Amino acid sequence: MLVRICTVLLTILALTTSALAEKRFALVIGNSNYATAGTLPNAKNDAVLIEQSFKAMGFETKVLIDADEDTFGAALDDLASQHDDTDVIAVYFAGHGLQKDGINYLVPVDAKLKSESAIERETISLNTLIDIVKPVPISLIFLDACRNNPWADRMIKTATSKNRDISVRRGFAVVRPEGDMMITYATLPNAVASDGAGNNSPFARALARHMGTPDTEVSVLMKRVTNDVLEETLGDQRPQQLSQMKREFYFRQTDGTPKRRDSLQTLLTVYPARVTAGEEVSVVADVPPSCQPLFVNLGATGKVTQIPRSFFRITSLSNGQIRYEISPGAEYGLQVEQSDPHGTNKLGFLCEPKGIVDKADIVATLRSTLTMVNEGTYSGLLTTERFGEAEFRFSEFEIQ
């Protein structure tokens, strides 16, 4: 897979009359220099890049670099005062974050976090931020956090050595947005995001790259961000959107009328790209309601294993798609066993052709699909004489 290295050219774009009439405000925080956790080189660069991007989209902006607890709290107080006359509020945070007992926390630069009990005292709860922005007509929260976290690692190690229940975890827990709100994690829940090898994180680069795309509804735009991050990280990092938005939002429109929403497409992520015995494989597939996915794994030795749809957590998304998801710790996990052959696996799905009911027809259709996958075609349309076209999508992961 090619890693795309793009230079982002930020241009002040012509805004529509509807955007000009809409009051937009963005709070952008980049915490790089932590007192007791070293430095995240790119967090401050990410904040500068994203603040410029928001400003180009007509947002009034406030940017904080290396915000301590008092500065962070004061900024949230100011944010709460924006309720009465603001149509859209966006918040972007780059820095350290962690979860305790299923609650997510953003970490100011002066946090010491000598014990688990210090988390509530020295950090900012994500729930507090959600409560502040939920009265606004549209709110967008972007969390480019959960980069390698020494506090979480130390607390997990201590709890494990003393055989205590582990209340602290790496990454963020899943939350429920309220109202017309979208919350975007730079990586999957319970996972760690990359600070990036260049001057910015993969997520910040992709978000800045796509924010100015005209006439693209935000849920579609974020799919493109997700795709770019997946490509840049070779499948190791997958952003996730949590949304209950009913209204459509466009960062930029070229005239005052909403454009037709992009047609729904299938998306697939198999995460991580490399696993060893004892680790679990995560699968996330977004498909249109018309698609009944048949999931299979083609092993390194050519063995085909069907993965029943009942193994997946199935969710209706706000953009009309259906999400099928297996994540670590799920009731039916995909755990790698010692006996599993090392090598490249190809996991994915075929949208069952309409009208197909005979098992022999299903097997024949699947066999044709896997032939194409073995030949290097991992996504596309399979054309059958009796049942028409059927979409398929596969991805690789390696057992080491």
UniProtKB/TrEMBL annotation:
SMART domains: CASc. GO terms for biological process: proteolysis. Keywords: Signal. Pfam families: Peptidase_C14 (PF00656). GO terms for molecular function: cysteine-type endopeptidase activity. Residues 1-21 form the signal peptide. The keyword Metal-binding does not apply. Residues 22-150 form the Caspase family p20 domain. PROSITE patterns: CASPASE_P20. Belongs to the peptidase C14A family. PANTHER family: MUCOSA ASSOCIATED LYMPHOID TISSUE LYMPHOMA TRANSLOCATION PROTEIN 1/PARACASPASE, MUCOSA-ASSOCIATED LYMPHOID TISSUE LYMPHOMA TRANSLOCATION PROTEIN 1. This is Caspase domain-containing protein.
